[in-house]
Amino acid sequence: MLGVGVLGVGVLGVGVLGASAATAQIERPELAPAPFQAPVEGARFAFEDLASGKTQSGRFGATEGMLTSFTWDGREAASLTPFCADCALGLPNDGGPLAGLFPLRVGHGIRFTRRHRGQTWQDDILVTATERLTVPAGTFDTFIVRRRSELQDGDWWAEQRNWYAPSLGWVVKLEGKASDGRVEAWQLLEWRQ
Q1: What CATH number corresponds to the domain at position 163?
Q2: pLDDT digits (tens, 9 = 90+) for 26-61
Q3: Which of 11, 71, 125, 174 is the most buried (most CB within 10 A)?
Q4: How many domains does the chain have?
Q5: Residue 164 and residue 82 in contact, taking contact as beta carbons nearer than 8 Å
Q6: Residue 102 carries which DSSP code?
Q7: SS3 (DSSP) at 28
Q8: Domain contains 178
């Protein structure tokens, strides 16, 4: 069962995850709407966990529809979009409602309900802004994509802010938190095509 809606600016609100440490001098480039683009098959990446300093690396595999396969720290994984791996559970390879998020543009978002393993989830994803962001792997023009997933049959939720670089077809930084107290922050250290 799947329900889909479209979100406008402000549904998720400003400050969901708090301000980033470097809020001064943020460059907001004008970006053309970005259609779905998968990372190049065989591209290698490395991310740094900003809390622990631990590095995890991987390699992209094939893409079928909107489903991109990859390895992450030696484990096989797949994601329908780079900023919504877990909210893609229970969706078809063509992205289902996630396909409606593309082309990415500021102020555009989607809301959908999905069922996975007998549980009902509400997902809200909104493109909030653009930002020219420098991480160890380089400087990228990005769309900032906010996501909130909520278990409808319980009290668990998670929020995430992702900096998506259309030039790579992937996220270069992410920050997230969940109702159980977990917090995460990752940045791209390396990208090789």
Answers
A1: 2.40.360.10
A2: 999 999 999 999 999 999 999 999 999 999 999 999
A3: 125
A4: 1
A5: yes
A6: P
A7: coil
A8: yes
